[in-house]
Specification:
heterodimer; A: Formate dehydrogenase/DMSO reductase fold; globular; B: about 0% strand
């Protein structure tokens, strides 16, 4: 669309709220198969609980496999939500406006998905609440020295804060929806959720302050959550795991994969709901630039890890990295390198960054690459530790693959419900970048 | 571009006092004379250690100054546009840094353990003197060339069209200006050079970190060490930019361009990055402490558990993180210039001490900060300031030709974030 933007305040309301209309056949055609896959995942899980963890492909010495990979993958996806909504907000980067709601929603749903996996991975999943420290008759106390426990706190804090942040940002928009809808049950639900928002000056004053403070508090969380996840691995002195760059490298990787997922999700939504004027090419350009940056950081980390393993002169370190690139799992290692470092290279060209189709394809490769990164870090490192007598090969079983597919469906299920129930584009913030309505003057806002 | 503002800014250049330039030159000469006398004389170890430390500290700041400018350009940041030139000014030291890098290799026997000792494979390949020299010098030359192209176009953007009124190096930069069309072409070129500077910076300064700091303890290694050094330098450059821009602002009367809002923003940035620094610090410390592998903990124990360096480590942590982070909390401290300068100065000093804690324990058992060490450090400071003032004397102190430069007292959109 090359014509000049014709967005006005009224049109923003109409366009965004129109997305919440009664689900169409197309939506149902997406939603019902998604439910089917969720059901299949559930079936796999029940089968695993019933039969025992043996149905997963765990083989000595690899007892962390696809489930932990999925966990890290989904926590990673959750990252760009807070990045886009909080960090870019603090940096006043306007390209976040149209996409931050989708990114935040994605964050919440991705954390909800990630949170399942530590439980799925448990031998006795019904005892999951033993993870929380509270005085109990079992006289059990969690091990605070374990990074796994830090994870419990990091992820639950992140879920709490990102949900609150998501909800606070929604309040003015829910109020706008409330004012539009007429059917009684919907009106009631939106009225309750909007917390009686009237849009008075006084309310906006406090609202913007609250939002700002939230953003400032959420920003360190982006760094901390994935750092703690990275320490699940870096704290072990297994070759290939014990390395100091893990925390920043994981954070960059998480943002990288999260941005990939934002693009994967927004491209179809933009097309289906005709949001071309909202989610503009400039927005994608900005995200693509962030992808270049994070891809470079991730590439730097791959290189440095490899180089220092060689430099260290430690046969264990070097053996591990040599195995990564040449051993049984080499194909996955090279998929990771190609998807995360090589495929984003064309984004250096402006024409590619502004070509939605190409961008969409690249974003899918990024998702694949980042999943394999976690797989490599976990499985390859575990399968060849210090002791050659304890080496082994792990391959995921159909149960694990089923649950992984189910987790994607679980995530998309929430997402599909979200775009039909809550405004997927921030009405209030979109209006901030539009010209103020003025009688007789049309779109005279050449910034 | 506003011609009137440009003329005004160009006229302000002469307000930089020649006396200050000479004073810093003299300080620099005294410092380097002390170094030469010591290095030739009785105490070459101490002299070379100080040289290495100061080289890494000041070169880091100088290059990171250019990097800050590149980041502002890449991100299309309007908020700190008028600080862009001051941070570029830090980079005036980089050509000199190349000479100092060459000098550094003269003292290799005193500071680089691998110059005198032989290590088994693969360290004999990587820590081979010829290879060390080659990669660092060539890497730095490439970075320097790219940085100089970047600076050239950045300055040309401001000076284009007034070449006839100028003399010396600024006239050379402005020469052959072909009109307003060229400004657009320069914009594109700057957009290409800026990311190149960034990537090379991360790469070359990782080499510096590995070869001149990490390998001083040849059996220790940490994958985060490169970022720890180049991000630390970046934060020190932010602090230095704050300090020097406040001084220039007062001397040249730049209050209309460098208003409170800019300092409020860059103050927040310094605060945020001090938090980021401690994050890197902690991310590096924690896995080493937790895994408790003897070949790795040795490096840390010397620095954080054993005296004399233990106390100094706490000073570093306090002045790089605890103090700036807490002190920059209130809005007042970010906009009242003397307070802000003080906080930034503590932070910058902290980063100097950080280099001390990283480098010296590998080479010496004790803390030795006497008159010689101070004079050598002042020598570097003097030279750094000398180059900076020469640069500011020759070029406009505000990027008047930049399309995102907002003119007087504007730039950046006032948003609700301004209220905090």
């Amino acid at each position: 669309m090359s014509e000049q933007s014709t967005l006005t305040y009224a049109r923003v309301n109409e366009d965004v709220i129109r997305m919440l209309d009664k689900p169409t056949v197309k939506w149902l055609a997406l939603f019902i198969p998604t439910l089917g896959f969720v059901g299949f995942g559930l079936f796999c899980f029940i089968h695993q609980v019933y039969t025992g963890l043996g149905v997963a492909g765990y083989r000595h010495p690899v007892f962390w496999g696809v489930y932990i990979t999925d966990f890290v993958f989904w926590v990673g996806i959750a990252h760009s939500g807070t990045l886009i909504s909080a960090i870019l907000f603090l940096f006043r980067a306007n390209f976040r406006m149209s996409i931050y709601r989708i990114a935040e929603g994605m964050t919440v749903f991705a954390v909800l998905t990630a949170g399942l996996f530590p439980i799925i991975h448990l031998g006795r999943p019904w005892n999951f609440y033993w993870l929380f420290p509270y005085p109990n008759q079992r006289e059990l106390w969690v091990n605070f020295k374990s990074p796994l426990l830090w994870d419990v706190f990091a992820v639950s804090t992140y879920l709490t804060v990102s949900s609150l942040f998501f909800f606070v940002g929604l309040i003015p928009d829910i109020a706008a929806v409330r004012d539009r809808v007429t059917e009684a049950p919907r009106k009631f639900v939106y009225s309750v959720l909007s917390l009686g928002w009237k849009g008075s000056n006084w309310e906006w004053l406090h609202y913007t302050r609250a939002y700002l403070f939230f953003a400032a508090f959420a920003t360190p969380l982006v760094l901390s959550v994935h750092s703690v996840v990275s320490w699940d691995f870096a704290m072990s002195n297994l070759p290939g795991w014990h390395t100091t760059i893990f925390a920043p490298y994981f954070v960059a990787g998480a943002i990288f994969s999260g941005l990939g997922m934002v693009i994967t999700l927004t491209v179809p939504i933009r097309k289906i709901f005709h949001l071309e004027e909202y989610i503009t090419l400039d927005n994608y350009d900005g995200m693509a630039k962030l992808i270049i940056l994070t891809s470079l950081i991730v590439g730097y980390a791959y290189g440095v890890e490899f180089f220092l393993a060689w430099y260290s002169g430690s046969p264990y370190e070097w053996g591990q990295f040599y195995y990564r690139a040449t051993g049984e799992y080499a194909i996955f290692y090279w998929i990771m390198v190609v998807c995360n470092v090589v495929i984003p290279i064309p984004l250096w060209f402006k024409a590619v960054r502004r070509n939605i189709k190409v961008l969409f394809i690249i974003s899918i490769f990024i998702n694949i690459g980042m999943w394999f990164e976690r797989f490599n870090i976990i499985v390859i490192s575990l399968s060849q530790g210090f002791d050659p007598a304890a080496w082994g090969i792990y391959m995921p079983s159909w149960v694990e693959i089923g649950i992984t597919v189910g987790s994607f469906a679980w995530f998309f299920m929430f997402f599909l419900i979200f775009i039909k129930t809550l405004p997927a584009v921030s009405i209030a913030e979109m209006k901030e970048i539009l010209p103020v309505p003025n009688k007789g003057i049309k779109g005279d806002h050449a910034g | 571009m506003d011609e009137q503002i440009r003329d005004e800014i160009l006229a302000k250049r002469s307000l930089i006092p020649s006396s200050a330039i000479y004073v810093f030159l003299i300080i620099g000469i005294i410092g380097f004379a002390t170094f030469v006398i010591q290095a030739m004389g009785s105490n070459p170890n101490a002299a070379w250690q100080m040289f290495l430390l100061n080289f890494l500290f000041w070169t880091g700041i100088a290059q990171a100054g250019i990097v800050f400018s590149c980041i502002l350009r890449i991100t299309n940041a309007r908020w700190a546009r008028s600080l862009l030139r001051v941070s570029e000014g830090l980079g005036a030291f980089t050509p000199l840094a190349l000479i100092l890098l060459l000098v550094l290799f003269l003292g290799r026997d005193y500071i680089l353990p691998y110059a005198t000792e032989h290590y088994h494979h693969p360290k004999d390949v990587w820590l081979n003197m010829k290879f060390v020299f080659g990669r660092n010098v060539i890497g730095f030359i490439v970075l320097l060339i790219v940085s100089m192209f970047y600076l050239y176009y950045s300055l040309r953007q401001d000076l284009g069209g007034v070449g006839t009124k100028l003399s010396g190096i600024s006239a050379w930069v402005a020469s052959g200006w072909s009109g307003e069309d060229e400004r657009k072409r320069i914009w594109v070129k700057l957009g290409k050079f800026a990311p190149a500077v960034l990537i090379l910076y991360a790469l070359v300064f990782s080499f510096f970190a590995w070869d001149f700091m990490m390998s001083l303890d040849p059996h220790w290694f940490s994958t985060l060490f490169g970022p720890y050094y180049f991000m630390g330098s970046f934060i020190a450059a932010l602090g230095t930019t704050i300090i020097l821009s406040v001084l220039l602002r007062k001397r040249l009367g730049l209050e209309d361009y460098l208003d409170d809002k800019k300092y409020h923003d860059i103050g927040k940035m310094l605060q945020g990055f001090s938090l980021f620094w401690v994050y890197l610090f902690f991310s590096q410390l924690l896995p080493i402490w937790y895994a408790n592998m003897p070949e790795e903990t040795g490096f840390v124990i010397t620095r954080v558990k054993d005296e004399p360096f233990r106390t100094l480590s706490w000073v570093v942590l306090t002045s790089c993180f605890i103090f700036p982070f807490a002190a920059l909390m209130p809005r007042t401290n970010k906009i009242v210039k003397p307070i802000l300068v003080f906080i930034a100065a503590v932070s910058v000093t902290g980063f100097w001490l950080d280099k001390y804690v990283v480098i010296i324990p590998s080479l010496s058992d004790s803390i030795n900060i006497g008159i010689i060490q101070i004079l050598i450090t002042l020598g570097f400071l003097g030279t750094f300031m000398f180059m900076f003032l020469l640069f500011m004397r020759a070029f406009p102190s505000i990027p008047v030709g930049d399309p995102f430069f907002g003119g007087k007292s504007s730039g950046g959109h006032p948003t609700e974030t301004d209220m905090v």
